[in-house]
């Protein structure tokens, strides 16, 4: 009997404990004050989120009219403040303040790196500041083929068509005394490259490509300058390797005998445009490049010759020919005497 009584008491105690724990697990109803605070917190969060969204749209995100394929040049010595004024003018950022803030935070005392920056797609103000702080230009490469025989002016026009922001006037000014030494080739230039950078690359290529001919040029016995001038005349006159060497032999002989070279290819260079019919007035032009009026080589190269023309200039074909002409079909006709040359003129040119 006592054992049963003890078991009953223990069971009642366990039941009371279970009921008590369940009652204590039920949360007390929230007070009105607590509910007000919760509503205020949610409202404040929504307002803050809306404000951040507006700030992002207006100041952080790139402008909707961000220019496609944008180029931004940071000149050496430009301040962070100066660049922050430039960027909104280019529609690259909204707020100079945020750009300055991030530029200062990321760069500290380093400031921005000078260079031309290329942006293929809009960037946030943070990424923009980061790239300019660490000098990540990411410039697109522009592939340009420069044919043999172009003058500096013609090269400038070609580059202007191929490269945005190319400074043609600057190129022509810097290259003024480098006619003949800008090697024709296929180049990959960084977008935004300066005239000086492009010219330096073309000059470097010229020196590298002509270097294997150095010994042959020296053995030929003419000055390097005269060889380049002659090569430019050959480049402008004829196209095949055989005719180039033949014409090279004729022109060097005429030069040695004090005869006018009478090269028609100089006139587009003198006049500044292609001319298909040389007039009597053209032949009388007072220009140091006029090889009809003045004997000897012209003042300088008339174009930028390729390696084949330079090679032809130092490997002339020996012959008795002293004259040549090109007919309307592009074929070359040679003559030993002036009388034979006049016959060819009448036969092939109708003159």
TrEMBL record:
GO molecular function, one term: lytic endotransglycosylase activity
Cellular compartment(s): Cell membrane
Protein's job: Functions as a peptidoglycan terminase that cleaves nascent peptidoglycan strands endolytically to terminate their elongation.
UniProt-recorded name of the protein: Endolytic murein transglycosylase
Site residues by UniProt (Important for catalytic activity): 237
A Pfam family per the record: YceG
Topology versus the membrane: Single-pass membrane protein
GO biological process: cell wall organization; peptidoglycan biosynthetic process
Main enzyme class: lyase
Catalytic activity of the protein: a peptidoglycan chain = a peptidoglycan chain with N-acetyl-1,6-anhydromuramyl-[peptide] at the reducing end + a peptidoglycan chain with N-acetylglucosamine at the non-reducing end
InterPro entries named in the record: MLTG-like
Transmembrane intervals: 40-60
HAMAP family per record: MltG (MF_02065)
GO CC, one annotated term: plasma membrane
Family assignment from sequence similarity: Belongs to the transglycosylase MltG family.
Keywords, sorted A to Z: Cell membrane, Cell wall biogenesis/degradation, Lyase, Membrane, Transmembrane, Transmembrane helix
Predominant localisation class: membrane
Protein's organism: Candidatus Taylorbacteria bacterium RIFCSPHIGHO2_02_49_25
Lineage top rank: taxon: Bacteria
EC number of the protein: 4.2.2.29
